[in-house]
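With this grant's support, we have settled on a layout for protein records. An illustrative entry appears below exactly as we store it:
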Amino acid sequence: MAASFAPSRSKALGRIFAASSASSLPEFLVPAWRTISANQSRLFSATSRCPSKLGRTPITIPQGVTVTKGDLVAKQGSRDWKATLMSKLTVNGPLGQLSFDAPEYILLEQDLENKLIKMNIEDVENETQKEMWGTSWKYLSNCITGVSEGHSAILRLVGVGYRATVQERRGKQSFHGQQHLILKLGFTHTIEEPIPAGLKVTTPQPTRILIEGTDKVEIMSFAGRVKQWRKPEPYKGKGIFINDETIKLKSKKIS
């Protein structure tokens, strides 16, 4: 015995309204699905698409800072199966030189008279380009600030007996004059964290660590490695905090 299946609701409605297509119906009686063409997709949001708020903001170039864009070079990342054309953006300033790789679709427009630089992309509707638009803008802004003013980060040591000093360890230097950050964090031994080249680390207080440099990525990377030795715990609030970082305390478990 053959099984009979009922037609879908959309097909049934289509047959009903197809029969009455010859007669004119008021607009409010026409179903919504008939007002949308087959090739027109319905958007989740009714708001119009807008470009990146960061990317379309011009960046002010301080006195003595220059930005240059290199030639396109094919580079392949460790997780990419296809090589991507990248151009190196180099920023020179009073405090040094920084550079990073930007995709080929990142466009730069410099206004030397007003000391402004604008960043744009080739296709505003492309999602990948829109994602890298704001990211590349932030990289460029950090580089300009780094070579003109510099970046800094403060680590706060919260805990009984937590101390930090900066010393030079002979025989443990990867380059001449390298210093080490010596930490006492409640372990049976002290922690020695080598300071990378280009960073200046000082301890204005035994429980405060000041990191200064031009590369913000390197500064926050070093601060993150130091934080890994004592992550903030939520019961007593002890640990190493970066800048204005806070943690919500939990109530103790009572059995």
